[in-house]
Amino acid sequence: MTSNHIPLESITLYRMALRESINGKHHLSLKYLRTAVMLAPTFTLALCEMGRCHEKLGQYPEALSNYNKVPEIDSSHVEAEIKKNWVLNKIEISKKNN
Questions:
Q1: Residue 1 lies in a domain
Q2: Tell me, what DSSP letter sits at residue 76?
Q3: Looking at the predicted structure, is the pLDDT value of residue 4 above 90?
Q4: Which letter does DSSP use for residue 3 in this model?
Q5: Distance CA 92, CA 79 (A)
Q6: Quick one: average pLDDT of 44-49?
């Protein structure tokens, strides 16, 4: 499997995850996304969405972990870098407020 080939099953799981995430069911979305990434470890859209779900759940270290994996796969993927910086800012603000 090349990095450009994502199995249909992973794409289907990703779409199911998006639907659940839109409905605020981020824990369920993460279940679908974990399976999608397990089947297609280079699926950067799914990794980014995992980061977003973790972020929505306030799980910032997990979000960073997902966002950090993306540039290792696709160095031109700007969205993950932007989101990573956003999470780092949230963590910094949280530390200042405590």
A1: no
A2: T
A3: no
A4: T
A5: 20
A6: 96
Residue 66 within any structural domain of the chain: yes
Residue 47's domain is classified under what CATH number? 1.25.40.10
- In Å, what is the CA distance from 50 to each residue of 39, 54, 83, 96, 97? 14, 6, 12, 26, 26
Domain assignment present for residue 3? The answer is: no
Instruction: Kindly calculate the radius of gyration of the chain based on its CA atoms and give it in whole angstroms.
Output: 14
CA distances to 14, 30, 32, 60, 92 from 38, in Å: 12, 12, 10, 21, 31
Q: How many structural domains compose the chain? A: 1
Tokens 């530390």 found at: 95
Domain containing residue 78: 8-97
CB 73 within 8 A of CB 61: no
Q: Tell me, what amino acid is at 79?
A: E
pLDDT interval class at 95 (50, 70, 90): confident
**Distance between CA atoms of 4 and 42, rounded to whole angstroms?**
8
Query: Going by C-beta distance under 8 Å and a sequence separation of 6 or more, which residues neighbour residue 29?
Result: 17, 18, 20, 21, 49, 53
